[in-house]
Design brief:
There is one protein chain. This protein is an alpha/beta fold and 888 residues long. The chain is built from 34 helices and 34 strands. It has an eight-stranded mixed β-sheet. The chain has an eight-stranded parallel barrel with strand order 27-28-29-30-31-32-33-34, surrounded by four helices. Strands 2-1-3-8-6-7 form a six-stranded antiparallel β-sheet, with helices on both faces. Strand 21 and strand 22 form a beta hairpin. Helix 23 crosses helix 24. The protein binds phosphoenolpyruvate and magnesium ion. The site of phosphoenolpyruvate has 10 residues, from strand 28 and helix 30. Keywords: ATP-binding, Kinase, Magnesium, Metal-binding, Nucleotide-binding, Pyruvate, Transferase. GO terms for molecular function: ATP binding; kinase activity; metal ion binding; pyruvate, phosphate dikinase activity.
């Protein structure tokens, strides 16, 4: 018999923290807290395997599930002294989702389940508070109808708002029990009207409806989008947690809140959180009421006059604080907690590793190592490499003039400017048009994920530091100002106003997620300096990493940035990229369009000094570090003149007629330029190109060697080789030029010649090709293109569909297809080394900056990865984590 259900609570549990694959993160941690003897309301977890079963069996359940759920419910009833569905002593439960990794806002929660027209009375009598009971019931109808029955929650809000304005009431807490009874009738009427059947009164029907809704929400569009963005496989499934209710809305001695054991924005070691008196969980995150600070310190810092939990409920606070310390030490990580205080008694509802900004992740990792909680190596594993991107975000120049229109909460760091848009669809469309936008919303919801992704930053007028907007923006590394209550957002007229000023949709604003300020117009930004914790952690990472990290750079500026970020050489200098600048393109076009060798040589002679100077500068910047220069690899279509003006320009320079040149250009057009006359094929046809480039490289090496006093050993790389003979032919041109330059200058030259491996044939024939190559660099952009037979330039139009239809988990041009393209990399590496055991191997496709792909490169034993300058720190950390993983 398969076990589908696991109980927890009352100081024991069937599960434990290490069962998160089966129980989901929330379920596993509830079990662990129970095992630790912490006050956890009893409950049970329906496993993720049920979710998988559900989708494998046409959305049905295993036969024995029902009996197991009944048994688990009875156990919860026994602990609480209640019974589910009982009219006198009813057990009420919450139903929540919980996948292996937390997916904030993605899944839905139902509270107060089990209430109906009868049980509500029993609950009210027992609590001696009918208002509380009816408040809970109306919440349940609202939530259940929204999440399970699909009735839009705005329709309920409207009924509520209308009641409040008719009776001149400000807050929900001013509504009386009798009022709620009337409102509940209207709520039920609304449901019946919308659905053609009454709101379900049978608690069991309610429960199975909620369980089905949790499983159903696993496959919603928004959940699928989130999974795609976070590389979460869809077969993981979600668990369902059913837990006895405890009530934060039982009057003034009850409360509910969320907290982090350390500050999730800055990493500061201080309990940090928010709570609301007489409220239920969703009130805190929904941002309907503005929450209060948990600690006195935070309250004072925020300048708030409303009391802290520490002051208001000192006993519950003290117990909570000690549980926080205990959980942090137990999990050896910063925890994100949810709690409820019911009539003065503290209950823990959740603990999990807290999401944090990159800045906080660094600080917490470095601090915890200093506190002895973690080893330095463990600290290295605690920062997600991709998150370092956040640290590279700009901040507002302190010298810049700030025209501040309003401010809100500093919810996610970084600053950004963009046009105001009010909907996520507008944001996405603007992004598609190449415009930068700030998404401005009263509050965000999971439906806004795509818009948040498309915008530079997010501004909301409602909600706290743990609101949806704040949590999701931090996860995305986007600047966010939340809860800017002084900003009035008018969706209908497309305006925002504050302090007597009004801005329109399309106007540019800047938000500063570090200070919470909202500024008019675009503001000067500063690039961040990487120091302190960053340097410390990177130092530890560099100490454990095996692979080197190089950069892909072709301009002196890029090379300098990369070196500052810790690049240990250049792994790919794409020489054709140097050809687009200024006047050069004319000479390049002349070279390509010449019909004679003589003509080509004349054009190449113009390019030589420019190339030599560029190379010399790069060698000087990279002094002492290896530099790999790739010979020309232009898909010709990128270089051919297109407009009449361009044609006339080149024709003039070459002294031929525009018509003749146009004819030649047409004759060079290819059906499939990416598979056409490019790479070494061009060098085979026109050896003079390789000769000019080799000369520029050698002369620059001599020049830079003299200038810096450090001899330069250039690595010359031949692109798109498929046949050993191609490489041999180009090699002969390079070697002849080396001999010539040595003879002319009397200097001796040391250099290496290698090849890119970017065609399946090159990988398969690596043993043969290695006879002529001193190094290989895997060009996985082309290797992905040629292995899949998918055009790099056309993939975008259909790869998205492949991902949503589940054919591909990830875009293979972003993260290496390890089983297909990766297999060729592995074969190429093994076969290359079978010929030349000490052969240097690297990767220089975009995958060289992708953490998962870097992990793969470690397993194949590559010597280095090479990536764009801004990804160098990410690659350093990812390479360190890969090395640590390889040790275990
Ligand atoms: C590659 O193909 O992976 C590569 C690095 O070369 P390019 O992107 O310039 O074709
Ligand atoms: Mg390539």
């Amino acid at each position: 018999m398969t076990r589908w259900v696991y109980n927890f609570g009352n100081g024991t549990a069937d599960g434990a923290a290490d069962m998160r694959n089966l129980l989901g993160g929330k379920g596993a941690n509830l079990a662990e807290m129970s095992n630790l003897g912490l006050p956890v309301p009893p409950g049970f977890t329906i496993t993720t395997e049920v979710c998988t079963w559900y989708y494998d069996h046409d959305k049905s359940y295993p036969d024995d599930l029902k009996a197991q759920v009944e048994e688990a419910l009875a156990k919860v009833g026994a602990v609480t002294g209640r019974k589910f569905g009982d009219l006198k002593n009813p057990l009420l439960v919450s139903v929540r989702s919980g996948a292996r990794v937390s997916m904030p806002g993605m899944m839905d929660t139902v509270l107060n389940l089990g209430l109906n027209d009868e049980t509500v009375k029993a609950i009210g009598e027992e609590a001696g508070d009918m208002r509380f009971a009816y408040d809970s019931y109306r919440r349940f109808i609202q939530m259940y109808s929204d999440v399970v029955l699909g009735v839009d929650h705005h329709e309920f809000e409207e009924i509520l708002e209308e009641h409040k304005s008719r009776n001149d009431l400000g807050l929900d807490t001013e509504i009386t029990a009798e009022d709620w009874v009337g409102i509940i009738d209207k709520f039920k009427g609304l449901v019946e009207n919308d659905l053609g059947k009454p709101f379900p009164q049978d608690p069991h029907e309610q429960l199975w409806g909620a369980i089905g809704a949790v499983f159903g929400s696993w496959m919603t569009h928004r959940a699928q989008t989130y999974r795609r963005l976070h590389d979460i496989p869809s077969d993981w499934g979600t668990a369902v947690n059913v837990q006895a209710m405890v009530f934060g809305n039982m009057g003034e001695t009850s409360a509910t809140g969320v907290a982090f054991t350390r500050n999730p924005s800055t990493g500061e070691k201080a309990l940090y959180g928010e709570f609301l008196v007489n409220a239920q969980g969703e009130d805190v995150v929904a941002g309907i009421r503005t929450p209060q600070d948990i600690t006195e310190k935070a309250r004072i810092e925020a300048g708030s006059t409303r009391p802290s939990l520490e002051n208001l409920m000192p006993e519950a606070f003290a117990e909570f604080q000690s549980i926080c310390d205990r959980l942090e030490a137990h999990y050896r990580d910063m925890q994100d907690l949810e709690f409820t205080i019911e009539k003065g008694k503290l209950w823990m509802l959740q603990t999990r590793s807290g999401k944090r900004t990159a800045k906080a992740a660094l600080k917490i990792a470095v601090d915890m190592a200093a506190e002895g909680l973690l080893s330095e190596e463990e600290a290295v594993t605690r920062v997600e490499p991709g998150a370092l991107d956040q640290l590279l975000h700009p901040t507002i120049d302190p010298k810049a003039k700030r025209d501040i229109i309003a401010s809100g909460l500093p919810a996610s760091p970084g600053a950004a400017s963009g046009e105001i848009v009010f909907t996520s669809d507008e944001a996405e469309q603007a992004k598609g048009d190449g415009r930068k936008v700030i998404l401005v919303r009263v509050e965000t919801s999971p439906e806004d994920i795509h818009g948040m992704h498309a915008s530079e930053g997010i501004l909301t007028s409602r909600g706290g530091m743990t609101s949806h907007a704040a949590v999701v923006a931090r996860g995305m590394g986007k600047p966010c100002v939340a809860g800017a209550g002084m900003v009035r957002i008018d969706y209908r007229n497309g305006t925002i106003s504050a302090g007597g000023r009004t801005l329109n949709k399309g106007d540019v604003i800047t938000i500063d997620g570090a200070s919470g300020q909202i500024l008019v117009g675009e503001v000067d930004m500063l690039q961040p300096a990487l120091s302190g914790d960053f340097g410390t952690l990177m130092g530890w990472a560099d100490g454990v990493r095996r692979m080197k990290v190089r950069t892909n750079a072709e301009t002196p500026a890029d090379a300098k940035v990369a070196r500052d970020f810790g690049a240990e050489g250049i792994g790919l200098c794409r020489t054709e990229h140097m050809f687009f600048e200024g006047e050069r393109i004319i000479a390049v076009r002349e070279m390509i369009l010449s019909e004679t060798e003589e003509g080509r040589r004349a054009a190449l002679a113009k390019l030589l000094p420019m190339q030599r100077q560029d190379f010399a500068e790069i060698f000087e910047i990279m002094k002492g570090l290896p530099v790999t220069i790739r010979l020309l690899d232009p898909p010709l279509h990128e270089f051919l003149p297109k407009s009449d003006e361009e044609v006339a320009e080149v024709a003039g320079s070459m002294g031929v007629s525009a018509e003749k040149l146009q004819e030649r250009a047409h004759s060079l057009e290819e059906f499939n330029p990416m598979l056409g006359h490019r790479g070494c094929r061009l060098l085979v046809s026109y050896p003079e190109i390789a000769e000019m480039q080799a000369r520029a490289i050698f002369e620059a090496a001599i020049q830079a060697g003299k200038a810096t006093g450090a001899p330069v050993v250039p690595e010359i790389m031949v692109p798109l080789v498929g046949l050993k003979g191609e490489l041999d032919m180009v090699r002969a041109s390079i070697e002849a030029m080396a001999a010539a330059v040595q003879a002319e200058t009397g200097e001796s030259l040391t250099y290496q010649i290698g090849t890119m491996v970017e065609l399946p044939r090159a990988a398969l024939q690596a043993a043969e090709i290695a006879k002529s190559a001193e190094f290989f660099s895997f060009g996985t952009n082309d290797l992905t293109q040629t292995t899949f037979g998918i055009s790099r330039d056309d993939a975008a139009s259909f790869l998205g569909t492949y991902q949503t239809k589940g054919l591909l988990e990830q875009d293979p041009f972003v993260s290496l297809d390890q089983t297909g393209v990766g297999e060729l990399v592995k074969i190429g590496a093994e076969r290359g080394r079978s010929t030349r055991p000490d052969m240097k191997l690297g990767i220089c496709g975009e995958h060289g900056g992708d953490p998962a792909s870097i992990g793969f490169c470690e397993t194949v034993g590559l010597d280095y990865v090479s990536c764009s300058p801004f990804r160098v720190p990410i690659a350093r950390l990812a390479a360190a984590q890969a090395a640590l993983k390889a040790r275990t």
